[in-house]
């Protein structure tokens, strides 16, 4: 790690002093960084695990107990110790959600003693307690953690309080904590030192870096992790940590949540009455030129459905789905000199239909983009291990999606930066590429 920091500082100094030779130096630096990362590859896993959670229709009682509702939820083991640490415990977490709350429960067992902060007289964060972390941004790989308040990163770090076991506790929201209801209890199983900790977190309190609260439908995964802090009375002199995912960034998720896991919310399977959120859209030239994404329309259905456009200049993405989905309309530039119209037909199970009329205004002749959409290229295409993008200056935000609309990658990238796709299944994918000046969509093929 010291070598890595040295190279980064050297890169910064060299860039300021000798920008002409930066290309060669950047290549050497990249090779050095790759060698360092490769040397550590066998020490820790490099993937972010995603857990899918389901909707619960029945009321959830927050009492710190694993009741029948929780019995039906799959347990996720918390089994990664911090490097060099050996906490004496076993733990798992579970999660589910309803219309208003995210519910989390943690079960810690095999404890040699229950030694929380109130009993030791010390800082609660150095004694027995669980901490959960959340990153509710759409772009998760941002190098930020809970310490960066106002960026959509949160933790829930409420320790145990004497006399408050088996009692629901209301926690106020702060810059770092989303607030909600907690409860905890002791004595699970045959060990009186085992404990269960339960949370109900309002989605309305979980706001991304733009201040937007989470709301249904939750159409992208969000970052999540759990840390169990462990001390044993008379045996340890410093806190030990067992985590679900992020075990290798100094300071853990407080400093950086990039290596946290993810929660992906499975849409509620209660059938919707079939309807669309809009039946008429007007696309101005500011939206329509340069293949811009021009509108989003919501489809609600209890079955399978398809969406088709009757004009080649207007694309609908995705063009099929099940239950709820957001449709993205993408229009070619209108250089006809007059308005033009298209109809989108959404059909449920080849029976019920809804029609959306789309009117696109003509583009002013004076409008020109400084980026030619034809010059933005995905290469190689087809691809097996990675793709790169070029044809734009600086950076672009890239979202890769399956044909059914599921996002598999979203991140800001530089021109010619490699995007790893080796773990994707073979088939066609859609790349939505957003620069400062435009947003375009291209298709590529992933091969085996």
Textual characterization of the structure:
The chain is elongated. Strand 8 and strand 9 (180-186) form a beta hairpin. By secondary structure, the chain is mainly beta. Residues 1-25, 31-46, 286-292 and 365-374 have low confidence and may be disordered. The protein folds into 4 domains: 2-39; 50-265, Immunoglobulin-like; 275-360, Sandwich (Immunoglobulin-like); 373-446, Immunoglobulin-like. The protein has helices spanning 2-17, 22-39, 68-71, 117-120, 252-255, 285-288; strands spanning 50-53, 76-78, 80-81, 90-97, 101-109, 129-135, 153-156, 169-171, 180-186, 195-202, 222-230, 240-243, 261-265, 275-276, 280-283, 293-300, 304-309, 314-317, 320-322, 325-331, 340-348, 352-360, 377-379, 386-390, 395-402, 407-414, 419-420, 427-434, 439-446. Strands 1, 3, 6, 7, 11, 12 and 13 form a 7-stranded mixed sheet that branches. It has a 6-stranded antiparallel sheet with strand order 2-4-5-10-9-8, with no helix packed on it.
């Amino acid at each position: 790690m010291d070598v890595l920091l040295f190279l980064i500082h050297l890169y910064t100094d060299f860039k300021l002093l000798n920008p002409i030779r930066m290309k060669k130096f950047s290549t050497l630096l990249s090779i050095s960084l790759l060698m360092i990362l490769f040397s550590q590859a066998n020490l820790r896993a490099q993937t972010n695990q995603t857990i899918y959670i389901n909707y619960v229709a029945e009321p959830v009682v927050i009492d710190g107990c694993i009741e029948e509702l929780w019995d039906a939820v799959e347990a996720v083991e918390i089994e990664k110790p911090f490097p060099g640490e050996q906490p004496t415990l076993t733990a798992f977490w579970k999660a589910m959600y309803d219309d208003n709350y995210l519910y989390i429960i943690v079960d810690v067992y095999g404890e040699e003693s229950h030694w929380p902060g109130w009993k030791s007289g010390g800082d609660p964060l150095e004694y027995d307690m669980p901490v959960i972390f959340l990153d509710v941004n759409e772009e998760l790989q941002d190098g930020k953690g809970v310490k960066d308040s106002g960026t959509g990163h949160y933790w829930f770090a409420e320790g145990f309080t004497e006399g408050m076991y088996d009692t629901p506790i209301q926690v106020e929201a702060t810059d770092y904590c989303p607030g909600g209801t907690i409860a905890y209890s002791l004595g699970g199983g045959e060990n009186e030192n085992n404990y269960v900790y339960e949370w109900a977190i309002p989605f309305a309190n979980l706001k991304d870096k733009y201040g937007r609260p989470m709301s249904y439908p939750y159409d992208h995964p969000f970052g999540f992790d759990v840390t169990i802090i462990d001390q044993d009375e008379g045996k340890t002199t410093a806190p030990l940590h067992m985590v679900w995912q992020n075990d290798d960034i100094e300071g853990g998720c407080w400093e950086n949540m990039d290596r946290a896991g993810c929660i992906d919310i499975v849409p509620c399977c209660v059938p919707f009455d079939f309807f669309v959120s809009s039946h008429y859209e007007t696309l101005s030239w500011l939206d329509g030129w340069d293949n811009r994404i021009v509108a989003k329309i919501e489809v609600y259905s209890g079955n399978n459905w398809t969406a088709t456009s009757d004009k080649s200049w207007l694309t609908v993405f995705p063009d099929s789905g099940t239950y709820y989905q957001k449709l993205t309309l993408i229009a070619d530039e209108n250089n006809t000199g007059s308005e033009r119209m298209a109809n989108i037909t959404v059909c449920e199970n080849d029976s019920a239909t809804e029609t959306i009329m789309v009117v696109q205004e003509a583009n002013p002749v004076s409008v020109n983009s400084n980026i030619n959409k034809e010059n933005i290229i995905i290469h190689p295409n087809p691809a097996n291990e990675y793709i790169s993008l070029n044809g734009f200056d600086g950076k672009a935000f890239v979202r890769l999606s399956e044909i059914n609309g599921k996002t598999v990658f979203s991140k800001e990238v530089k021109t010619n930066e490699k995007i790893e796709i080796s773990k994707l299944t073979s088939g066609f994918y859609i790349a939505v590429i957003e620069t400062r000046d435009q947003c375009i969509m291209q298709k590529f093929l992933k091969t085996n």
